[in-house]
Amino acid sequence: MSEVVQNGTRAVGAVVQALRILRHVAASGEAEGVSAIARATQTNTSTCFNILRTLAAEGLVVFDAEAKQYRLGMGVLELAVGLMGTNHGDLIRPELERLALNAPALICLWQITDTERVVLLDRAWNPGSVRVDLPVGKRLPSSVGAIGRAIMAARKLSDDELRRRFAKLRWQRPLSFETYLDSVRSAEQHGYGRDPGVLYAGVESVAAIVPDAQGQPRYGLSAVSIQGQIEEAALHQLGVELATVGQRIGRALFRAPLHWEE
To answer: Are 195 and 149 in contact (CB under 8 A)?
Structure first.
């Protein structure tokens, strides 16, 4: 293991290089390729590539496969959560953009209010895809749609309480309480909720929560698409990814425990 002398202290060379690269990626503010990062940090290109690949595996940087570039990842928040004062929406925005690049869907960030509503805070999309749209500020009951199923699943409400809330909901396509209940229990099992074109005819969605330290939903992530645009297997994988990202954001922002694994 190579060592270097830095500020009078013997330091591990590989760690010094990794931190130099991570600091550069954080300071640049823009995604960059391996060659540009290697030049800026005076690191061998092959070594730089291996370090970036390791940092990406740990979630500290994010790799854009299409552009072949790296940018700062959500994993850094896990290290800095005690110092953060930045708006949560601004911190989550890069994850929305990353998700949108890989799916023909509108990726939404919802805030869950104390008045049993969800409010659309932000959304991202792939400019090259045909998509649906929702306006920022849109409000919905917190138990409706895919996001509602995910929230109800996280709260583990009784059947009677779910029935009470269900009676107040409005859907564009008919939905029985039994079917709704089954979909909430499915969300508990799989980690994400799904609305198969019931809330809005012709529009389907999958959604997951961002939990706090007590495992309660603080934010929601959803992917909204034209019905049939995403194949069944891909839709399931998108739901799983939303659940995984939601858990990671929850750990970074709220020190949330990992309570679900696919």
So the answer is: yes
What lies within 8 Å, CB to CB, of 15 at 6+ separation is none
Is residue 210 domain-resident? yes
Q: Considering the domain boundaries, does residue 231 fall inside one?
A: yes
Question: Distance of CA 182 to CAs 51, 162, 186, 188, 249, Å?
Answer: 45, 11, 6, 10, 27
8 A C-beta contact, residue 206 and residue 193? yes
Q: Tell me how far apart the alpha carbons of residues 117 and 244 are, in angstroms, rounded to a whole number.
A: 23
Domain count, the chain: 2
What value, to the nearest 5°, has the Cα angle with vertex 255 and ends 157 and 54? 120
Q: What is the pLDDT along the chain (262 residues), one digit of tens a residue?
A: 455 544 456 678 889 999 999 989 988 878 999 999 999 999 999 999 999 999 999 989 999 988 999 998 888 877 766 555 568 888 899 999 999 998 899 999 999 998 899 999 999 999 888 889 999 999 999 999 999 999 999 999 999 999 999 999 999 999 999 999 999 999 999 999 999 999 999 999 999 999 998 889 999 999 999 999 999 999 999 999 999 999 989 987 887 655 544 4
- Single out the residue in 23, 43, 73 at which a domain terminates: 73
Q: 250, 242 in Cβ contact below 8 A?
A: no
